[in-house]
Write a structure and sequence with these properties.
Two copies of one chain form a homodimer. Chain A has helices spanning 7-18, 34-39, 43-58, 70-73, 77-92, 107-119, 142-148, 163-166, 177-191, 210-219, 237-242, 256-259, 273-296; strands at residues 21-24, 64-68, 97-103, 126-129, 151-157, 201-205, 225-227, 250-254. By secondary structure, the first copy, chain A, is an alpha/beta fold. The longest helix of chain A has 24 residues, at 273-296. Chains A and B meet through helix 4, helix 5, helix 6, helix 8 and helix 9 of A and helix 4, helix 5, helix 6, helix 8 and helix 9 of B.
Chain lengths: 299, 299
Amino acid sequence: MVTQTPAVDLLFDAVASKGHVCVGLDTSADYVPPAERKKAADDAHAVLAFNTALIEATFDVAACYKVQIAYYEEMGISGLCAYTKTLEYIRKKGGIVIADIKRGDIADTATRYAKAHLAGEFKADFVTLTPYLGMDSVEPWLSQAQNNGGGAFVLMRTSNQGMRDFQFLETNDGKKVYNKVGDKLAELAAKYAGKKGYGIFGAVVGCTERQEASDIRKNYPNLFFLIPGYGAQGGGAQDAALLLREGNGGVVNASRSIITAWQKEAGSQNADNAFAALAARKAAIKMRDEILLETNGRK
Amino acid sequence: MVTQTPAVDLLFDAVASKGHVCVGLDTSADYVPPAERKKAADDAHAVLAFNTALIEATFDVAACYKVQIAYYEEMGISGLCAYTKTLEYIRKKGGIVIADIKRGDIADTATRYAKAHLAGEFKADFVTLTPYLGMDSVEPWLSQAQNNGGGAFVLMRTSNQGMRDFQFLETNDGKKVYNKVGDKLAELAAKYAGKKGYGIFGAVVGCTERQEASDIRKNYPNLFFLIPGYGAQGGGAQDAALLLREGNGGVVNASRSIITAWQKEAGSQNADNAFAALAARKAAIKMRDEILLETNGRK
C-alpha cells in the first residue's frame, strides 16, 4: 500500500498558501439564482451547477470546502448524487473537502461509515464526527484515514447556544466536558500525527466564545481546528485568530455569508450562477483578508 | 393537517401485542446466504431481498425494526436505495421502523435532516439522534415529528465500552453526564407526549449495566427506551426487563443474533433466504419469550 500524505498536512499547506477560509457548501436550492434553478432538470442538478460555479470562482482563495450532507439528503437520492459529484469535483481539481456528516457510531458500524466516507463512493478528505458514544466511535475511523490519506474533525466545543447543555457541564475535577473530549483527542493526536505538528484527527471549535479561545489553543497545540461560528453566528476575525497557532492550525468556515452573498449585490434580481460565483469570490476574499490581518499581527 | 397518532403510541401498542423485540436490519451483504448473494444483480439487491424475506418471517413477533444506515451507505447510492426500499416495505405492511442514523446537527441543518428522515424520501417512524451539540440539535425535529406522526430516540447511556469516556463523567453536582441528557429529555417528554404516558421522543439506554438500570427506569418514567446491548454485547433478558415499565416502555434491539442466526443452523451451507428467514424467526421468538418471561414476573 502506498503511504498517503495525511489530509491534515495538505490542509496545513493549503492554509499557508491560500489563507484560512473554508467555504461551506451548505447549498439549498433556495440559494440558487431563480433563473438557474428554473433552467435545471431538478433541484439537485441546480445545486450541483451552482456548486461547481462557486468552486471555480473561489478555488484560489479557499483552503478547503465543507459540504453539509443534510442539505443534500433533504433532496433524497438525487440530492446525494449531487453531493458525491460535488465532492468529486473538488477532489479532481486537487482541492480538499470536508464531509460534514457528524457521524458517531461504534465498532463495525463505524468502520462501515469510514469505508463509505473516506474510501468509497462518498469519499472525502475529512469527515466530521460527534463524540458522545466515546472514543470507540472515533478510533475505528483511523485505519481508513491512514490508508486513504484522510482525516476527521471531532466536535469539541461548538458555536451554537445549545453547547451549554452538555459540552459546558463542569466535571468533578473542575474541567468541562469539552475539555475531556479535547484531552482524549490530544492523546490520539500525539499517537497519530502528520509532519506539520498536528494530529491527523482535529477538533471542531467554534469562534463564538472569545474568553476561552486562548486557553483552548494553548491547551491543545497539536489539534488542527475546524472553526465554525464566523459571521452569522457572531464570531469575527479576532475571535477566529485566537484559535489559530503561528498563523496556521485551523480553517474558518463560512457558509451562507459566502454562498448567498449574491443576494445582497446590486442587480441580484437578474443573477445567474456566474454572478453568484463572483459575489462568493468577493466575500471569500474579504473574509480571508480580515483573518490574515489578525493573524499577521500574531505570527 | 390531519392530526397524526404519535409513533410512540403505535409502538406502545405493538409492544403490548407482539412483545419487545426490535429486529435490527444491520444487513451486510456478507450476512446473505452466498447462493442468494450470487443470484442477485448486486449486493444492494441481495440485501433488499434478504431483508424482505426476514421482515415477512418476523413480522408478527417483531414490535418494530431498526435499520442501521451505515451498512447501506457502505454500498453507496445503490445501498441507500435498498435502505429506502426496506423502510418502505416495513411501513407499507403497517410495521414500525426506526432509522438508526444518529444524526446531530443544529437549527436549519437539523430541520433539513428531519424533513428527509421523518417526511421525505427516507421517511421512517423514528430516528435516532445524538445529543452532544445540545438540545437545539434535538428540538428542531419536533415539528416534523408532530406533523408526520414521527418520533426519535436520543442517545442517553449506550452499551459500548467507550460510554465511560464522556457519558459517565461525573458533573459537579454528583450527577453523570448521561443523567443530564436524561433530565433534558424528560423535560421535553413532559411537554410533548403521546397518550400512553410516554414522550414522543425517547432515549437509547443499553442493557449492559445492570446496576444503574433500575435507577434509570425510576428516574425517567416518561421516556420510552430503545435498548441495545442484548446478546452479543452481554445484556440478557433480566437486564433488559429492568429498563421496562409495567411490561412496556421499551423495545430491545438485536441485530446480528437474529439476522445471522441461519449461519448456526444445521444445513446452513445450502441456505437460501427462506432458510435464513426461518432461523431469524426462531431467534426472534426465543428472544421475545425470554424477555416476556422476565417482564411477566415484574408486571
